[in-house]
Amino acid sequence: MRGALGGPGVLLRRLREVMAASISPQERLDRLVVLIAGNLVAEVCSVYVLREDGSLELYATEGLNREAVHLTTMRAGEGLVGLIASEAEPLALSDAQAHPSFSYRPETGEEVYRSFLGVPILRGGAVMGVLVIQNRASRIYSDEETETLQTTAMLMAEMIAAGGLKSLAAPGASIGLDRPIHGVGVSLADGVGLGHVVLHEPRVAITNLIAENPATEVGRLEAAIGEMRASIDELVERGDVAHTGEHRDVLETFRMFAHDQGWLRRMREVVLTGLTAEAAVERVQSDTRAKMLRQTDPYLRERLHDLDDLANRLLRTLVGKANGVPREKLPENAIVVARSMGPAALLDYDRSHLRGLVLEEGGPTSHIAIVARALGIPAVGEVANATALVEAGDAIIVDGQAGEVQIRPQPDVENAYKDKARLRARKQKQYAKLKELPSVTKDGAAITLQINAGLIVDMPNIEATAASGIGLFRTELQFMVAQHMPTTAEQQALYTAVLDAAEDRPVTFRTLDIGGDKVLPYMERVEEENPALGWRAIRIGLDKPRLLRAQLRALLRAGAARDLRIMLPMVATTDEFRRARVILRREQAMLEKQGVAPPRLLKVGVMVEVPSLLFELPEITREADFLSIGTNDLMQFLFAADRENKRVADRFDPLGVGALRALRRIVEAASETGCAVTVCGEMGGKPLETMALIGLGYRGFSMSAASIGPVKAMLRALDARKLTERMDWMLASPEGATSLRPQLAAFAAEFKVPV
Ligand code: PEP
Ligand code: MG
Q1: pTM
Q2: Which ligand gives the minimal distance to the CA of 517?
Q3: Highest mean pLDDT among 162-171, 299-308, 588-597
Q4: I want to staple 317 with a disulfide (CB 3.0 to 4.6 A). Which of 224, 392, 426, 434 is the partner?
C-alpha cells in the first residue's frame, strides 16, 4: 500500500527546517519539492507560481526535466495546472492523460506519468499558484494525501506572500503577487481617488505555521472555539438587539455556524496534519473563501461573510489583536478597503485623509453609499474578493464614476487617472467660479437650483454650491443609518439642526419613504413579491399612522415659528394627499394646544412619482401647495422597468417622446392652477436632461450637490425660449424618433450649450 511516509507531521517538521535554513530561495524551493515528493511517495513534485500576466510558471520540480524550470508556463485555464488555478479546487486523477484539459509539454518530459494530484496554492481565497505531484503508475490518491499537499501548499503561499520568490521570476516576468488588477464593481459615489490601501479590518498576521506539538494545538483550537461560542451565545441572548426580524435571524445563523460540526471538524483535521491552530483556521477559511467566491448564489455569499467573521474571531483569540491603523489616524491619501462597512464606521475615519472607499459588498442604494456620496468620497462596491487581492499600503485608484478600481496600477494607467483627476479638479474650479453668478438662462429665465440632502453632513454643500435651499430632504436616511428607530426627540433634533444650518433658505422635508428597497435594519421585514409596488412610503404612513404622526410632530416642533415645507412621497391619488393632510392638521392642533407655536408658513406638497397622479392633475395641483417630480420612480413606473435592475433600468429613455409628453402635461397643469412645481429626481441633475426640462417649462430643480456646477454652466448658456419652440416642434412631429436625445444633443451643440 502506498501512503505518506512518516505522516504529515514529520513532513511539516522537515519542511520547517528547510524554511529556516540559510539558503537561496531557489535552493529552498528545490529542497521542498524533493521532500514533498519523498514524503508522498511520488516521482514528481512541481510548483507553479502565478505570474503578473495571469499565466503559471514552473518554479521548481523534482522528477520533471530541470531545464523546464522558469521556462514552462501555462496560460490561465490551460492544461490541468491552469484548470486548478481557475477552479481553485484540488484535482486528483489516476489517468491524467485521459482528462480533456490535459496539455502535454514536451520539454518537461511528463508524458510518462499517469497519475496526477494538484492543489491550488491559496491565500485569503486568492490563487497564488499550483502544487502538483505525479506518479508513473495509475494511482488513487487518498484524501489524507490531498490534505497533506494542501497543507504544504499553504506554506508555499506564505513564502510567496512574504516576497521570498520575487527574485526568481523568469526575465521580463514578475510574480502575480504584485500584478496590477483591474477590479470591476458598481459605482457607489462619484469621483476619482488615488492613494494607498488601508484595510478596514486588518488581517491577523500568522507567523507561526507549523506546530511544535499537535496535541497542544488541538487544545488551543478547542479553547478558542469555546470562547467564540460563548461570546456569540451571549450576543444572541443579550437583550439589546431586536428580538424579531432580520437582525435576530442573522445572529441565529451566526450561532448556527459557530456550532457547525462540519466546519469545526475541518479545522481539527487540519491541525492534526501538523499546522498550528491559527494556521489551520486560516487554511480552512481560505479554502472556503475560494469555493464560495465561485458561487453566484447571494445566500451562500452571505454565509461566507458569517464564516469570515467567525474565523477572524478565532484568529484574534489565538494570535491577539490585529494591528490596524486607528480610524482617526489615517495616513495621507488613504483608500479604505473593506468587505462591508456600516455608515457609522465610515464617519469615524478622518475625512481629510480619506481619498476613496472600496467594498466587496454594498449596492448603490446601500446606506454606506448614501453616506459616501454625502461626504463626497469616491466609492466603488461589489468588487469581488477585494480585501484578499490587496495588501495594506498597495497603490490603488478608485474610479467612482466608472465603478472600477485599479490595484497596483502600471505607471501609464496611473498617469491616465492622474490626468482624469486633474481634469475633474479643473472643472470643479470652473464651476466654483459660477457660484456667485445668477442662475438665469441667456434669455433671462430665472432657474431655481436646490440640493438634495438627507444627513447633517450634507449641510455644508448648500454654502459650497450656493444652492438656494434643499428641495428634497430624504428623512429616511436618518432612519437607515441608525442602529435603532430614531425617537421623536432625535428626529426633532435633526430637523432643527438642518433648519439652523440652512439659515433662511427653504428646506423641503420629505416624510419617511421606507419600504421597497429602503429597509430599516431594526424593523420587521415584510416579505413582498414586488416590494417597489408594495407597502411603502405614504401607504405605511396612512395604514400605521403612529410613525407618520411622530414624524410630523417632530417636524412641527422643529418648524415652530419658522417656515416649514413638508412633502409626501409615493402619493398615488389626491385622496391619499387629503388623508395625510388631515393627520397633519390634527397633530398641529394638538401641538398648538400644548403651546407649541405654529409654523410661520406651512406648505404641504406631494412627490409626483406614481403615474396615476398624472390623471388627477386638475385636483392635485389645486389642493397641494407644490409638486416635486421624482423622476427616478416616475420613470420606473411609467415604463414598468425596475430602476435597480441593470438589465432594464436603462432600457427606456426619459428623453423619449412618451416621457417628455408626460412631463409636459404636469408642468402645464401646474401653471394653469398656479401650483409650484420642481424636479427632484436624478433626471433634473443631468445637464442634457435638465436642458430638456427647461425646454418643457420647468424652472426649479433639486439635485445632488455635485450636479449644480454642470447644470448651472449649461443653463447660463441656454436660450430657453428658442429651445421651447424647438421642442414643441420636435414633440409635435417626432417623425418616427422614439428618443429626442440626438436632436436635443444637436441643439446643444449648435448653440454651444455645455451638456
Ligand atoms: C425619485 O423617485 O425620483 C426620488 C427623488 O425619490 P427617491 O430616489 O428617494 O425614491
Ligand atoms: Mg422616489
Answers
A1: 0.72
A2: 1
A3: 588-597
A4: 224
- pLDDT band for position 53 (cuts 50, 70, 90): confident
Residue 582: exposed, middle, or buried by beta-carbon count in 10 A (0-12, 13-18, 19+)? Answer: exposed
Q: Which of 722, 132, 204 is nearest to 441 (CA)?
A: 722
Q: Which residue has the cell 488555478?
A: 85
Please tell me the distance between residue 680's alpha carbon and the centre of ligand 1 in angstroms: 7
Taking CA atoms only, the protein residue closest to ligand 1 atom 3 is 630
- Evaluate the CA torsion angle 232, 233, 234, 237 in order and state its sign: positive
Give the single-character DSSP code of 211: -
β-sheet bridge partners, residue 470: 451, 507
Average pLDDT over residues 717-745: 94
Per-residue pLDDT tens digits for 439-485? 999 999 999 999 999 988 889 899 999 999 999 999 998 887 777 89
Torsion (CA) 27, 33, 35, 36 in degrees, nearest 10: 160
- One-letter amino acid for residue 566 of the chain: I
- In this structure, which ligand is nearest to the CA of 631? 1
How would you label 601-633 residue by residue, b for 16+ Cβ within 10 Å and e otherwise? ebbbbbbbbbbebbebbebbbebbbbbbbbbeb
Q: Report the SS3 class of residue 686.
A: coil
Q: What is the pLDDT of residues 415-426, one digit of tens each?
A: 999 999 998 888
Atom of ligand 1 at shortest range from CA of 516:
10
Dihedral sign for Cα 246, 252, 254, 257, please.
negative
List pocket residues of ligand 1, CB cut-off 6 Å: 472, 474, 513, 609, 630-633, 680-681
Compute the half-sphere exposure of residue 611: CA atoms within 13 Å on the CB side of its CA. 11
Ramachandran quadrant class, 151 (left: phi over 0; alpha: psi -120 to 50; beta: rest): alpha
Reported as a single tens digit per residue, the pLDDT across 163-173 is 778 777 777 77
Pick the residue with more confidence: 565 or 329? 565
- Cα 632 to ligand 1 centroid, rounded to whole Å: 5
Q: Grid coordinates standing for 553? A: 410632530
Which atom of ligand 1 is closest in space to residue 628's alpha carbon? 5
Report the 10 Å Cβ neighbour count for 100: 6
Nearest CA to ligand 1 atom 1: 630
Which of 627, 631, 632, 637 should be mutated for ligand 1, with most atoms under 8 A from CB?
632
| Residue 379 contacts residue 358 (beta carbons within 8 Å) | yes
Q: Which one is catalytic: 45, 200, 675, 680?
A: 680
- What is the whole-number distance in angstroms between the Cα of residue 504 and the centre of ligand 2? 26
Instruction: Let me know if 367 is a catalytic residue.
Output: yes
C-alpha 476 – ligand 1 centre gap (Å): 12
Hey, CA dihedral for 181, 187, 191, 196, is it positive or negative? negative
Instruction: Summarize the confidence of residues 180-204 as an average pLDDT.
Output: 91
Span 594-607, mean pLDDT? 97
Which tens digits make up the pLDDT trace of 85-125?
A: 999 999 999 999 899 999 888 888 888 899 999 999 998 88
Mutate to test the pocket of ligand 1, among 373, 451, 610, 680 (most ligand atoms within 8 A of CB): 680
Q: Which of 455, 513, 638, 683 to mutate to test the pocket of ligand 1 (most atoms within 8 A of CB)?
A: 513
Task: Tell me the ligand closest to 512's alpha carbon.
Answer: 1
Domains annotated for the chain, with CATH where assigned, are 7-178 (3.30.450.40), 181-202+332-424 (3.50.30.10), 214-319 (1.10.274.10), 434-750 (3.20.20.60)
Mean pLDDT is highest, among 224-233, 274-283, 317-326, 601-610, for 601-610
User: Is the distance from CB of 200 to CB of 338 less than 8 angstroms?
Assistant: yes
